[in-house]
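Sequence, please.
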């Protein structure tokens, strides 16, 4: 178990509890009451820490190395029914963007999402979740296939941004993202978007236009990361906490500004602390959203989607 800096009081109590339990097993001393007191203190400390998280602390939680990634969600939701599809039929298969067909219960979906790695080797293989233009073109190819066969689309967002390399720009990174945004606004099947980790800039928007946009509690969604914002405004990363507050990037901020439709609650301690519960909650939210969307005709879906996005940022003084 890895702990973030603000979680160190929890780490200390868990170590105390573990030692207390070991003493109880290895000796004849009754430590039941002591263990219960530590457990009570541990629960109180967890509640106190996680109910008062700052914007920067939520950013840290969204990047937790134990946090479930896109493939973890797909495997939990679709299981053995998932069939991954590869390539953009133009350049190559982008390993940072994955997609394919799968079933939740008896309903087929097209799953698309950014995938990060869990160690040095897989992080390099997945390009740290930063897709190239061919990744966005693969995503669009899969969405158009889903439209052709009347299959709803689920996109899972978890990226620090689209890959900013020279070769990505040469192959049309900006155009690929812009094309996806345009095509997603007029896709004739339901689109359910879920922010499961980092939702940074155009890299997130390239698969982020949805009829229903769900956001896990400890995630963030913004035009820029707190570190980059800090480096631009203050010429230093030291002010990343202030930048995180100013950017209004948390799920609560997004919901208040009507940029997302629903906040998906996470278990106490974050999505990684109880993966099974997190996957079940996400599944319920997806199926609930789909029940509403499947009643709409393609024309109604497109009209409502267009109205939703054109209303964003409108202010009546």
């Amino acid at each position: 178990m890895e702990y973030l800096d603000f979680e160190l009081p929890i780490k200390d109590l868990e170590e105390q509890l573990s030692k207390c339990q070991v003493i109880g097993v290895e000796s004849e001393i009754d430590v039941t009451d002591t263990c219960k007191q530590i457990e009570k203190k541990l629960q109180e400390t967890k509640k106190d820490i996680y109910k008062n998280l700052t914007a920067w602390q939520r950013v840290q939680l969204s990047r937790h190395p134990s946090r479930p990634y896109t493939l973890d969600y797909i495997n939990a939701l679709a299981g053995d029914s998932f069939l991954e599809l590869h390539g953009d039929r133009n350049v190559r298969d982008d390993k940072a963007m994955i997609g394919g067909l799968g079933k939740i219960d008896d309903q087929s979906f097209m799953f698309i999402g950014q995938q990060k790695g869990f160690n040095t080797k897989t992080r390099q293989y997945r390009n740290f979740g930063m897709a190239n233009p061919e990744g966005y073109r693969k995503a669009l190819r899969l969405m158009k296939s889903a439209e052709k066969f009347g299959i709803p689309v689920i996109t899972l967002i978890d990226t620090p941004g689209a890959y900013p390399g020279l070769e990505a720009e040469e192959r049309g990174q900006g155009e690929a993202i812009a094309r996806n945004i345009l095509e997603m606004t007029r896709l004739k099947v339901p689109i359910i978007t879920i922010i499961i980790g980092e939702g940074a800039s155009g890299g997130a928007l390239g698969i982020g236009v949805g009829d229903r946009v769900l956001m896990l509690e400890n995630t963030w969604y913004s035009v820029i990361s707190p570190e980059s914002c800090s480096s631009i405004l203050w010429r230093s990363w030291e002010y990343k906490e202030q930048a995180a507050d100013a950017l209004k990037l948390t799920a609560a901020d997004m919901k208040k500004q009507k940029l997302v439709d629903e906040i998906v609650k996470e278990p106490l301690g974050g999505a990684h602390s109880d993966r099974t519960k997190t996957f079940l909650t996400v599944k319920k939210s997806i199926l609930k959203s789909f029940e509403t969307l499947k009643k709409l005709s393609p024309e109604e879906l497109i009209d409502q989607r267009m109205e939703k996005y054109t209303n964003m940022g409108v202010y009546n003084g």
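The CA atoms of residues 38 and 270 lie 21 Å apart.
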